[in-house]
Amino acid sequence: MSKQEIRTAEAPTPVAKFSQGVRKGNILQVAGQVAFDPKTGDVVGTTVAEQTRQTLKNVQAVLAEAGASLDDAVMIRVYLTDVAHFAEMNEAYGEFMTTEPFSARTTVYVGLPAGLLVEIDALAVLS
Question: β-strand 118-125 against 27-33: which pairing, if any?
Answer without folding.
Answer: antiparallel
